[in-house]
Design goal:
about 270 residues, alpha+beta, about 10% strand, globular
Length: about 270
Amino acid sequence: MSHGDVSQGRGGRVSRRCLTSGVLYAGVVLGVGAVLAGCTGELSGESGSSGGGMSARYGTSPLADPDGTKPGLAPISAEKDEATARALISKVTTKGRGPKTGYDRDEFGYAWMDTADGVPLSRNGCDTRNDLLKLHGQNVEFRTGSDCIVVSMDLYDPYTGKDIAWKKAKATEVQIDHVVPLSYAWQMGAARWSKEKRRQLANDVLNLLPVSGSTNSAKRDSGPASWLPPNKAVRCSYAVRFAQVAEKYELPVTAPDKDVMLKQCGD
């Protein structure tokens, strides 16, 4: 079990965070004894974003999660939240995409190192991939004798809007996506960063989401002008998260990417 999260449908258990939140959720006031439908850690309604639909149950609005430490990626649909999103995206600077010369995944440290100082969840004794599975998964089960190595979980994939019943035996069905791809970052200026800063970007939970393997493979190193999540409901949220990472690391995006990001969050 991960981060106190439990969901109705596997023994009818209730998330401890849901019990303490005291907010209206899917039409039901949360409280001891309430019957919940898939409640997870943080709810998009807490940020003022209506989200709506099934996907609102499976994550947090990026506007309420500036450090990426809360589970999921909930939709942004309220008009005031879209305005906030556009203002955030507008701050991102632009420049042309440089050459890929010299890029190698190892320039960002080995995957998934626990020793990238300066980012959430570092040096906790668990590698970044398993940290992400624990953070975003529900009904998490660990290898016998371990509180780190995840062997099965249920994941709501915000990119596709689908549920994935994942088991380690088929590990590649879930992959960890770098929202701002490392190759993209390299071409936008990370080639000149220190090794420490590159390792931070590669292991920062703000820049990481567990999603379906096939969707992650299809994205490759694309920016938003070339690739957006198939699930249209989270495209504004995806653009916001892309902008949050870019702002944190003082990383520009291309002008076409910025234009597409803004368009995802209203006119």
